[in-house]
Fold this sequence. Notes:
- The chain is an alpha+beta fold.
- 22% of the residues lie in helices and 28% in strands.
- It has helices at residues 7-17, 22-29, 33-41, 48-57, 62-65; strands at residues 3-4, 90-92, 99-103, 113-119, 136-143, 145-150, 153-158, 162-165, 171-174, 181-188.
- Strands 1-2-3-4-10-5-8 form a seven-stranded mixed beta sheet, with no helix packed on it. A three-stranded antiparallel beta sheet has the order 7-6-9, with no helix packed on it.
- It starts with a strand and ends with a strand.
Amino acid sequence: MVEEFNVGKKIKNLRKEKKMNAKVLAKEAGISYGMLSLLESGSTQGSVETLRKIAKVLNTTIAHLFTNENITTEILTDESKLIVRKEQRKKISFPDPLYNCELLVPDLQGDVEFVLVNLEAQRVTTDIIPHTKGGEECDYVLKGEITITLYEKEYILNEGDCIRFNPEIPHKIENRTEEQASYLSVITPVSF
């Protein structure tokens, strides 16, 4: 079974822990109250940039918004803190139905983000944005063909190809073909 994160519920819980009302959080994060309401109700997942703004106001990280529990020193006694079984991967939802990710690590609390990304046929975007400050991103194509744009330079990668770049470079990853593409993405530091 694939577990799906409820980012909105996590935001609402963190906001309430800080005794902050929704209007104050929305104002300080520079988003509309309506957008925050949609996020908290689960009607939308919001953009990565919106989640970054909210996380900053809540004095946390985007990674923490995608966790369901706190990490303790009892990790070694609980296999689920170390191992991700295929049928237990956590799915990260995005508003884009042609783009989905599955965590290949137990959580996003470590130094590396490791995800399986699936791009449906004709997943094309106009967004070209940086993700994290510094670090590295490596993307290894498992199936199909992906096009990675770094600034204005395009690179086409096929099954078995891999690319490494600084995720601070504005970029986008697309599938311009008629078949699904999948790739492994390893990013440090964690971008969510």
